[in-house]
């Protein structure tokens, strides 16, 4: 069964062929009426008298001898000529400006991108938007992978890995990084001091995890703080892909309620997921009337909200090291396989 793109190709091909055929008939009739026959083009360069080839030969001047300047003006004013010129112009614009552009990222080359917007989302966290060379450019980052960011700090090149919250299929011309500023964090403090127009150096894609809608039937996600970034990217990609049937459960831990990052975006995805995506928040310092988890994420919460290890599932984790150590212990006690030191895509438990 042909898909939408195949139908579109057949329609555009048929329409273009029909217009060009009509144009050819119209132009041929126009020229024939002026005693100019396209079939005579084959005679150009041949002798006019085959018995005396040293004599004059047919030339382009012979072909157009009856084609005056007035005829040329009349031809370009015909609807057929105007239609073909318009079609050619549309085709040129499509090929030159609307075609698929190459990804900007290069895993072997550092590239610089300017900061164009900074949005504060919590007392110590902001979303930093960086511009790509063109508003039509795609970043070139597969869902689930990350980038390396490099900065010179106190005479040393410092590198850190970050996962953008933007997606190639939705976000053209820019990429966003969700970054929490730590008092002793070299790169995070560097970001907090950036001014509009300042540039960062980026290289990628990096990482062993690449999401697709046939990867697994169930995803269990455990995140803390800015560890929500790769999870948000995966959730967003899955929920807006209507061919994706993966169910997703997220445990998201933070200290205070105002520390819950991308909360509006996550809840918007939950409400539009047709029951495929659910969230359970955990806070160390909950406000009065809080209905989520309190304190640290417990083994019982993991057992309740994560898919069981005997299902077709994957558990993905990203967050502060102490939290990840505790989650590994919980998963081990629940009989999940232990994550490798460096996780692989095939692993049931993957640690970003």
TrEMBL record:
It comes from the Eukaryota. Its cofactor is FAD. Keywords: FAD, Flavoprotein, Membrane, Mitochondrion, Mitochondrion outer membrane, NAD, Oxidoreductase, Transmembrane, Transmembrane helix. Its EC number is 1.6.2.2. It is found in: Mitochondrion outer membrane. The chain crosses the membrane at residues 7-31, 72-96. InterPro entries: CBR-like, Cbr1-like_FAD-bd_dom, FAD-bd_FR_type, Flavoprot_Pyr_Nucl_cyt_Rdtase, FNR_nucleotide-bd, OxRdtase_FAD/NAD-bd, Riboflavin_synthase-like_b-brl. It catalyses: 2 Fe(III)-[cytochrome b5] + NADH = 2 Fe(II)-[cytochrome b5] + NAD(+) + H(+); 2 Fe(3+)-[Dph3] + NADH = 2 Fe(2+)-[Dph3] + NAD(+) + H(+). Residues 108-212 form the FAD-binding FR-type domain. Pathway: Protein modification; peptidyl-diphthamide biosynthesis. Its main location: mitochondrion. PANTHER family: NADH-CYTOCHROME B5 REDUCTASE (PTHR19370), NADH-CYTOCHROME B5 REDUCTASE-LIKE (PTHR19370:SF184). Belongs to the flavoprotein pyridine nucleotide cytochrome reductase family. This is NADH-cytochrome b5 reductase. It comes from Lentinula lateritia.
């Amino acid at each position: 069964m042909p898909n939408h793109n195949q139908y579109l190709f057949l329609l555009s091909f048929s329409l273009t062929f029909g217009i060009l055929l009509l144009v050819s008939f119209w132009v041929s009739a126009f020229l024939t009426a002026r005693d100019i026959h396209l079939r005579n083009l084959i005679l150009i360069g041949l002798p006019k008298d085959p018995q005396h080839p040293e004599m004059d030969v047919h030339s382009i001047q012979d072909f157009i001898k009856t084609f005056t300047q007035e005829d040329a003006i009349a031809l370009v004013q015909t609807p057929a000529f105007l239609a073909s010129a318009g079609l050619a112009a549309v085709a040129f614009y499509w090929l030159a400006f609307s075609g698929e552009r190459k990804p900007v990222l290069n895993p072997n080359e550092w590239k610089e991108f300017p900061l164009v917007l900074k949005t504060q989302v919590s007392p110590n966290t902001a979303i930093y938007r960086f511009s790509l060379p063109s508003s039509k450019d795609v970043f070139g980052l597969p869902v689930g992978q990350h980038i390396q960011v490099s900065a010179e700090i106190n005479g040393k090149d410092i590198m850190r890995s970050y996962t953008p919250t933007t997606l190639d299929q939705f976000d053209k011309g820019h990429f966003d990084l969700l970054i929490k500023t730590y008092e002793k964090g070299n790169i995070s403090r560097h970001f907090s001091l950036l001014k509009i127009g300042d540039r960062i150096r980026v290289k990628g894609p990096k990482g062993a995890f690449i999401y697709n809608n046939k990867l697994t039937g169930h995803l269990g996600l455990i995140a803390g703080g800015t560890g929500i970034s790769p999870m948000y990217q995966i959730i967003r990609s899955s929920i807006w892909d209507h061919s994706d049937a993966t169910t997703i459960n997220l445990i998201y831990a933070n200290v205070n309620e105002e520390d819950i990052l991308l909360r509006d975006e996550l809840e918007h995805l939950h409400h539009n997921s047709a029951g495929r995506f659910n969230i359970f928040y955990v806070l160390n310092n909950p406000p009065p009337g809080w209905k989520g988890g309190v304190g640290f994420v417990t083994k019982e919460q993991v057992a309740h909200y994560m898919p069981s290890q005997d299902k077709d599932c994957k558990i993905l984790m990203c967050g502060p090291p102490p939290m990840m150590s505790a989650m590994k212990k919980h998963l081990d006690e629940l009989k999940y396989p232990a994550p490798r030191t460096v996780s692989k895509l095939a692993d049931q438990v993957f640690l970003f």
